[in-house]
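Re: weekly structure request thread

Next one in the queue (250 aa):
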Amino acid sequence: MTAPVTALIAEDEEPQRTELRGMLATLWPELVVVAECADGISALDAWTTKKPDVAFLDIRMPGLGGLEVARQAGSPAQVVFITAHDEFAVKAFDAGAIDYLLKPIRTDRLTETVARLRSRQPATQVDLTALIDSLAGRLTRAETITWITASIGDTVRMIPIEDVVLFQSEEKYTRVATATDAAFIRTPLKDLMLKLDPEVFWRVHRNAIVRVSAIRQVKPDGDGRLLVWLHGITEPLRVSDAFRHRFRAM
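Done, posted below.
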């Protein structure tokens, strides 16, 4: 009896993970999902231990992005990247070993992907390093934010990205803080991360992105939770467990 094809789904948004799993159950009922992960570190661990035949990886995830997960994984698998960036995705993925899905995922597009994945089983070891490096370069060169258009009361203010030290979720808005004041925008953090330089801004919590150069101090509190203080910001920010690895050398 032929062993079932297995899959890993790595997507940090639970509703999108659930939706993809449901679509796959309909389009590929014999596929066995062996792991579902909400961040890149757990995805890499699951890939190493479960050795799936197929890996669905969100390009932007806490801890490690999908590109880095694929780069570090040691066992063979067919890789499907999930991305919200059309201009980043289109031509670079047409290389045989890698496929992509644009958010929101359409049934007809996933049907095509499933057909290709079925035809490539069993998965074989493919060196994806060069292609992943190319994709990472495209992402780095993607359009980035230079100005933030934000509201302060009835006033609209243009804030240079160089002045921003913190983006923080607050109910339906995102607080944009500089060293001297703050304003609010409607763009969620996940969308902001797509257009922020990952070497300049780090996500330290589900609700906070900080400018690395603005970090004044990092230390644990009495309960062992890691806290970050920023220049110009009075209150410390808690670092979630998914992002503690960023500060191991500090």
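The helical segments are 14-27, 40-50, 66-72, 86-89, 107-119, 129-141, 189-193. The chain has seven helices and 15 strands.
Next request, please.
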